[in-house]
Amino acid sequence: MNAVITGASKGIGKAIAEKLAREGFNVAICARNAAPLEQAVTDIQAQNPQATVLSMPADMGKKEDVLAFAAKIKSVFPSVDILVNNAGFFVPGSLDEQEDGLLESMMAANVYSAYHLTRQLLPAMKALRKGHIFNLCSTASYKAYPNGGAYSITKFALLGFSRNLREELKQHNVKVTSLSPGPTLTASWDGFDAPPGRMMEPEDIANLLWAAYTLSAQAVVEEVLMRPMLGDIQ
Length: 234
Description:
By secondary structure, the protein is α/β, with parallel strands linked by helices. It has helices spanning 11-22, 34-47, 63-76, 102-128, 149-169, 202-213; strands at residues 2-5, 26-31, 53-57, 82-85, 132-136, 175-181, 223-226. Helices cover 43% and strands 15% of the residues.
């Protein structure tokens, strides 16, 4: 069994990769920075020494990097059972004050990366009539927040991509799930002074993904909203 997780050197992506390795999957991961990626490989491998852990430094905001990562995956894995489109970044700010070009770069990383990688890996899934695609959306995909700016636009777009993909792939027996977590204890929240236990853990999202994946073949979780017990952090 083979899984692909983008943006997996830390946070939610890494937690998912570790979970899938423990469950017996080989995993392919990517991230922009080589050093954290190498450490992630070591940590993931420790979860299952028998697993193949394929890694590649890649800026998923660049189409050429996405295509190179896809080519490397296909050269090693004959098929992909789980694809997790998790790569992306967050910059808060109002639309009229954010720097010029931020929307374009954020769309490339948060949306186009999922679009291009999915297109590369879908033909084999459709041919085999199996596979599960998870798109990491956000509560910002459903609700506009002050200072959501360009980020919120990209997350609304990613949810739209995911919903469209779900409709297209029903007949091909390929599942599509949108996971939309709220505040989660990751690097995106560095510098924010939250009370202990106020945020969700990355492992919460990994465990929910696994629960959705292990349903019967005739069942699919289309969309999930996850929030901390006390709700959003304003």
